[in-house]
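Lab channel / #folding
Pinned by the channel admin:
"Please post every new chain as: sequence first, then the structure tokens as a reply. Keep commentary short and put observations after the output so the thread stays searchable."

First post following the new format, from NK:
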Amino acid sequence: MSILGRVLMRPWLIPSVLRAGWRFRARGWWRRVPFLPLPPMEYLEWRLHTAYGDEGRDPTPGEVERYVRWTNRMQRGRRSRRGAQ
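Reply from TO:
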């Protein structure tokens, strides 16, 4: 199953996946063709290399889902700590 297939099977993940994608966008993406908020390729290669030791390896859909769920937990924790101050 692809990442898209995983998200379509779990529609509650859609907002989280979109937020994760937005965090990876390139700065000034609106100034460069194709005018899409895509991450820089060098950054993606670096992230994959530091995660797997190989920039050519793609994360599995399960790994992407775990990452998205982890970022959600971290965001909830940040918001609850801010409210306690």
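NK: The radius of gyration is 15 Å.
TO: also worth noting, The mean pLDDT is 86.
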